[in-house]
User: Fold these one by one.
Assistant:
Number 1:
Amino acid sequence: MPGKHQDPNQVELLQGTLDMLILRTLQWGPQHGHGVGQAIRRSSADLLKIERGSLYPALHRLEAQGLIASEWKASELNRRAKYYALTAAGRKQLAKEQSKWKLLVKTIARVMRTA
Amino acid sequence: MWWRFWNRKRRDEELEEEIAHDLFLETEDLVQSGMPRREAEFASRKDFGNVLLVKETTRETWSWRSLETLAQDLLYAARTLRRSPGFAATSILAVALGVGVNSAIFTIFDQIAFRPLPVKDGDRIVGIYETFHGQFDRKMHGNTHMLSYAEFQNFQSRNRVFSEMAAYAEVRRLTLAGLTPEAVSGVLVTRDYFKVLGGTMILGREFVDEELSSPRPVAILSNAFWQHRFGGDPAIIGKAIRLNQTLFTIVGVTAPGFLGTTATPPQLWLPLSLQPVVMADLAPPEPQNFMAADNLGWLSAIGKLKPGIQSRQARAGLQFLAAGMDAAYPGRITEVGMLPSTFLMNPDARTVVLIGGTLVMAAVGLVLFVACANVANLLLVRATLRQREIAIRLSIGATRGRLIRQLLTESTLLAFLGAFLGLLSAQKALAIGRTLAGVSNDLSLNAHVLAYTLLLAVAASLMFGLVPALQATSPNLSGALKEEGSIVGRRFRSSKLRNRLVTLEVAICCILLVGAGLLVRGLINLNSLDPGFYVKRVFLTSLDLRLHNYGDVRAAAFYRELLARIDSQAGVQSALAAVTPLSGVRMARVTPDGEPAADGVREANFNIVSPNYFDVLGIRLIQGRNFTEAEAGGRHPVAIVNEAMARAYWPGQNALGKRFLYGPQPAVVIGVATDVRSINISRLDGPLFYLTMNPNSQPLAVITRSADDRPLAGAIQQIVRQLDPTVLSSVHTMEDNLEHETSPTRLASRLALLLGLLSLALAAVGIYGVTAYVVSQRTHEIGVRMALGAGRSGILRWMISEAMRPVCIGIAIGLPLAAAGSLASSSLLLGVRPLDPVAFLAMAAFLAMIALIASWVPARRATRVDPMIALRYE
């Protein structure tokens, strides 16, 4: 099993949120698979680590759904890399997911406060 | 299709590159943070995880993934099978055998019982029958569900549910005159018969009203008959043929492919009004003109539903009309029934065929089961051989589901290849059989058969594929990689399963063989049975002088002269009879002692015979006397009854001198004859009485017995020709009658024997395969035993007893099952008791012997093991 010794501070990714995170990451511009993984990790201050075994299937699934598009371009180290970018549909989907997420967080927080 | 593979290849390469790029960046990051390159490469790989698994799960997200996997699995399966051609050929052949037999039998079954009539709008056509309830008295010619002409006319003229209706009746006894007279069958039909069925004429026309309102001898030929008897003569219309001595004008020839509504297509169709002409051989008390008899059921009816009318509504409509007819017959309740149009629209016959067909389908299903058990066995052996391959694939990340899918694809491929081959051979065999039997029925492939075969293929693949696949991939791989280890335990487990499969095969085979044994025994018994009258050297001549406008006096003179001339040959003696044994029955209502029928009507069979009938056939009179010549010449109310009738009507009394009425006529018993088997060879006749000739009852057949083996047929026919060259005679033997009587049993026993032997061959292959495998797996063990002093015969005994254990258990399971099946279907067994010990024991012994041979051949190989080589091995 990959990644056996996990940082105890790392948090488990909530089910179904990976797609949203990927879309959000791509909002700043096209990125390749490795870059997406790194970006999520960095913006979560190393608390979230995305397994490649989840990342790549998710990227390909989103591409098949038409939410992101891919293009082969030269990367920063001058190697051919597959860059993913948000499509119009992806942008709409991200907006939807974000508002849903905010509502969820608010609701859960309220429940937890009153409990 | 190819672009997909190409596309797939490119996508695969891209994914590869994407992952490589990820690893590269990761490594670069680590290198920049100061890690040595080699270490960085290793660390990034470790961080990434299982590359193969990531690739695999990513591929899963591609939308056309499942189809791709299927294609990939199929290719892989095909390659694996090609690498072991022996295994592939054996399995495919076994499946082909099993599926082929099933598919062929189903085609016949479907054609008779389920396929709508092959005519335009066949699914809009229904068969109409009647069932009677309550107190009623109905005459019939055919079966109890048939309509009378008056009933049909009532339905036809007053219903609002059918666009057209037609009625028909089969006529089997037709003789077509010619250089060699030919027996043909015809169907009497009403005018709209062809219209309902959408049958068109290739030549001439359909029947017209005048031909139906008054008897005019016209006929329509079937296309096949026109082709083979008249060479497709284009000028046939208007020509005449002579049928039963009447000249018929041909008015039409049906288009090819029109088969009518009867299971055996007739050679010709005649207008219904000709019934009195073509059935002129009926003697009183049967009515002569069926069309005028309002309470005589003799017609089958069909109707074409009007658009939008369901058969349920149609039945309600006719039921209403039938209630009106019941008013004329107090106490009778008619229930109208309908069946979808098939070649089997008579409900009684349909029930018999459905029961028989289900039994046959069950038997062939069992053969397929044996075939599947065999293939499962082979797959188990293969799974053991492929254990390492499977273990490796599991350990490098293949999921169990994936491997099961792969293995199932392999077995499905086998099943479909086998089913395809089976279907092809079934079609071929049916085509050949159709030509040999001269059947014109359409037995070609249709959607029903294709669907059924597909279903069988899927069922077969699951039957033999699932268990071996589950077992082969059972999560126990750590040991398998270690070469020896748990293999022994695993081998033990799968060998137990293999033995169970052999047990199953043997049990099924035992059931089929015992079934065949019972039928064959029945047939032998029937043939060696003493029917109570002479069978050998008895010739039966049928003539029909009625059709030659012979009056009764002239006919009597003709027969006197005929018998005198036949009997002038040495050792030859002839008698006359209305019905010859084993060729049909006559029935009459009988009221004993002249009392009116109070507690229901009783029926008895009867025959009209000349005084020497008993002598010629060797039927003994045990009481009273025979008819006298004087009685045969006049109208004397005398009868001879058989023992069964004496017992049934006058139990515990002397039947002699007793009086009874048959129909309205009185008779007095003058003699009692022994019971014989003249109606159904498998049992003694029920109540039966004999009347003697009177000037009004013309005999129909001459029964001649010869003292030696001289063939008499030619001589008799010549004598008939000398007397009257226009009279047609047909001569056959009593043995022909007997053979005809036993033909269904003969057919059934042949089929059962074929299926039994087929399953036996399959089971033998299974036993052989398992024993051979065990021998090859235990070479080491055998070597050890031999080294320790076991003799060759000891080894042989050991191997055979190992192999025979599941066989014996199988027989022990199969015999009681066969007994249960035999008891349940005992009504179908003729001439043998359902628990006939000979059939059971002989078949069990036969099966055991074949099993012994099948295990002895490979077991002998075990005795040739050289202990030194066996011990050094491994």
Number 2:
Amino acid sequence: MPSTPTGPLGARQQRLIDAYLTDLRRCLRDVDPRQAEDIEESIVEHITAAFAHAGTPSVEDVQAVLEELGPVERIVSAADTRTSAVSDSSTVATAPPSGASAGAIALLLLAVLALASSGLWFIGGPLGLVAAVAGLMAARRPGAGRKLYAAAGWVGLCAVTLTVVFAMVLTSATTTVSPDEPAVLTSSTATSIPPTR
Amino acid sequence: MAESNAKMHCMVASDPPWAQMRKGVLEFCVLACMVAGPTYGFEIARKLAKHPQLLSSEGTLYPLLSRLRRQGFVETTWQESAEGPPRRYYHLTPPGRSALTNFSDAWGPFSKAVGHVLQEAM
């Protein structure tokens, strides 16, 4: 969450700005979280830039800047309802951002690698966990590559599960060695090992 | 239901008559502000706010800039400022420049056609 402008502001001026930003956050609740954060940060930057030359701004100065920014409802309305002429008129606009797809593909590859190395718990486990958490979280957000992210998440989850299964099998197959008795494997497929002298 | 009411409360009841026309051109005016070089949000807002038909509330610029960035028409970089914290500078990408050129080419004949029709009618 962006902080409010810090500078030589009086208490009343700061309260005015804080109240404006609180209203903005409230109205941005229904907007995509990444866009909402972007908008809020930009508004904070705008307010900071507006007072860059002002020394200590008066209450009237602050009110004027906030009035010029306009009602928070109008800002949020622009985020929700304004149709983009650019996206309507350009084929480039409809193409998903390549960065998002590349990220999803990279995560999917990571998940596959985790699955392939699930026999090695110290590699497959952490890689699978990272892929599962990152993939499933990214798939919940709107944007390009959601299906790829979801696939990466589920493959990562499978890798984690397989790693746990392998680890359990290995643990149950550990040997109990006594100096006087032959070592016996405790798993169902155990075979007797003659004592060594 | 409560969420729906909150959303309704956040909507603006009415817009001025030129609001529909503005929707089609404001994006390109914002892109045009970056032709001379990278610029920051406050500077763009002040430039456009000189024309209330284009930007009546400076804050509405920021959802638009966010969208243009997501569409790949602008990119941002942070630059140090002598007057305070670092600023986010917006600059045109090649697709953004191309979209602006296409719009600019179409705008002349379009506005001329509208002018002719209105002139004949009035």
Number 3:
Amino acid sequence: MRRLTDFKLQNGGGRLKVKQSSNKDAGILDKIRKNYILLLFMLPAVIFFVIFSYLPMYGIVMAFQDYSPVSGVFQSPWVGMENFQEIFRTPKFLDAFRNTIVINVLKLIFSFPAPIIFAILLNELKNLRFKKTIQTISYLPYFVSWVVASGIWYKMLSIDGGVLNELLMTLGLTSEPINFVGTPGWFYPLIIITDLWKNVGWNAIIYLAALSGIDPGLYEAAKVDGAGRFRQIWHISLPGLRPTIAMMLIFAISGLMNADFDQLYNMGNAAVREVGEVLDTLVFRILQTGTMSDYSNGIAMGLFKNVIGFTLFLLANFVSNKLTEEAII
Amino acid sequence: MKKKNRIDAGLGNKTFNFLNVLFMLLFAVVCLYPFIYVLALSFNDGVDAQRGGIYFWPRKFTFENYITVFKDDGILNAYAITLYRVVVGTISSVLLTAAAAYAMSRKSLPFKKFFNWLILLPMYFSGGLIPTYIIISGIGLQDNLLVYVIPSLYATFNIILVRTYMKGLPEALHESAVLDGANEFIIFVRLYLPLSMPVIATISLFIAVGHWNDWYTATIYTSTKELWPASTLLQNILTSSEISSYVNTKFFTQQMNRRPVVTPEALKMAMLIVTTVPIVLVYPFVQKYFVQGMMIGSLKE
């Protein structure tokens, strides 16, 4: 009797794990032979990921080398952390680091909540055809590239004949055309506004789907209890969105080091570089205009960015897991 | 008292609805207006447009800007390259992605865990731009038209999307096909590929739009503008003050004595529209697939 209890305790409250004896090991060659077609399907993918994802990861070691193309990755001298010390003495890098953080924090404040609000408001529309039409229109800017988007916005904001400046001058709000795209002070508002214009509709999709999953009976019950629209939104819609918001927040926070390269490269120009240069555009410019000897620094910057990004991802994932039981991995 | 409250609530409701509809209309205008503005300018005489005042409709209507775009050999060449990469790139990418996704959807795939990690890890960590550049140019893809196709063949997100869909198909289908003596290749081509059309359509569109919009690859991996797709050419035309280095300038000079005249600005507007129109034409029909794709993709594995 006593022995039985001990045994139970040892096994974590009495659940017995029956280990199945299998002949897996013996069958692995057999399994490969039987499924060789599936393995052939995987073969190009394996080659692809090894060449285009894993070999570049190995290239990271160059961040610790004084890379010279003549000696290559295997022969270049090791310099330890010297490249990192050097980039932290480079004002351009420090500026880009600061700009990356500032732009992302601004986006977190403005661009993150916007699709949530948009989805909730869209969800409140009663006429379904109107709702569908608005939704379709709201996606449109997402599908054009930032090259096209910047071309369009530069024209709209142009100092000679751009529609916005003409409007402002007609209304008497300004006597001189404002150089929106060439003034550092206007750059961040411009980035936020064009980001909202391009992405709000698209980013709202995931929240709309979550809203459509909320039981309509909850809204009915709230109405009977005399709750107005805002209270319904506050007490039913928002709590229903919580898991989705948590998941999207993890993505947003882990992407804190990736300012949207396409947007910043195309919307930026030399006149606003001091506020518009981010880590991604800086590394890109090093690749474009720098000599091979700058590569090690560029790779060090890329690695610095990736390590912080990955750490943020793990951190956000962990915190979210603790708080809401929502996690990506 | 209670009744009055309800009327107040009703009034609040009406105001809310009214303001909400108003906001949505305003939002739609903000989304669409930039396109309308550029469209009007692209159909307007270039010199006339410099006077300003064109907001919704061309004042001095002309097709000349578009004719110039379609007469320029450099621009046509760029669109031909874009077409090539959209067609070749999308077809090869979709087929290979579907094959890999099919294999990964099968329980019998050996080393499944290994393959899973192999495709998942690059989503969270990458070597960065410069090491990738060194590899890609190192294997001879520099100044090679294959650079538009090969490095973008697979994307982890797309594989997961298709795999999730295929996993949802009834296992009995596969079993009965096996009983009929079909091998995995036949089952994939004849059964799973046709049955997965909704998700195949979704990723085809993601991939095709990606190819159409990509200006970046050419900027890094090509050194002559003869190899550029339209988006890269457009990007350079938009950012450079010297448009003549990209387009045949005879269009601006030869026609000086003849109206209407094409200006570099007007040409840019026409090119913006030519680059946007295919997307605008396609997307209302395919957006439901995109939305579906977003939904499948957001499901947690």
Number 4:
Amino acid sequence: MSRKPSGLRVIRTARSKAKINDAVKAGFWPLVKPVETNPPFKSRFAVYQHPDTGEVRAWGNPRYRLEDEGWEQVIPWKSYRLPRFKEPFAAYLIPKDIQVGERVWLVDLIEDFQGVSGVIESRLNAASAVWTGKDFEIDYDSERDCGFTIG
Amino acid sequence: MLFFNIHNKTLLSESGELIKQLACPYPVQEVRLVRENARQVSCKGCERSLVMAHALPESELIELMQAQPKTCLLIDHHAPNIQIIEETSP
């Protein structure tokens, strides 16, 4: 499904630390996630988030630990496959008034799902999802969204 | 025109002849398909080549499947020369 059903609130994605923190200042809570796609080039990093303000910091050096300063590690130290996007992490910008169970439209999916047919290697760009209070349950039906059958 | 029954995954010719019943153990959302040429993609699930059914003339597809019935196919649900059948009975 890549066409927005009417009536759904649009949730936008910020794909850089600067844009995430701009959104924090504008009143959004960033739900930060690693961005992983092929090809498998790797980068080692962690991302910290301030529990009160939501501001994020990306760290490439494991010797610096922000936990002592009250920051929470939201993406753990690990080698992540480098994405086709510029930054290896991104965030859904959660409005403060979002309700648990609210169905929304994720206009720029961070997670990788195989997309519509006709273009092999395509990637699903957008999908509807339900807010659980902590994360989104993304609506994905392989038959519907991939649009092809193999065998 | 080819006919594909999305429920039992059978591909039929215009005259109703069974061309193939598709079966693949890999979940379609987990496989990665890379285009090899205008007629084939390679499947990164099992490293086989898949023939795109809509890219061949029907007679050529039938001949291919008779000669090599284990050939993997890719059925594009939106191809203009493939009609999707929604019936649950064969």
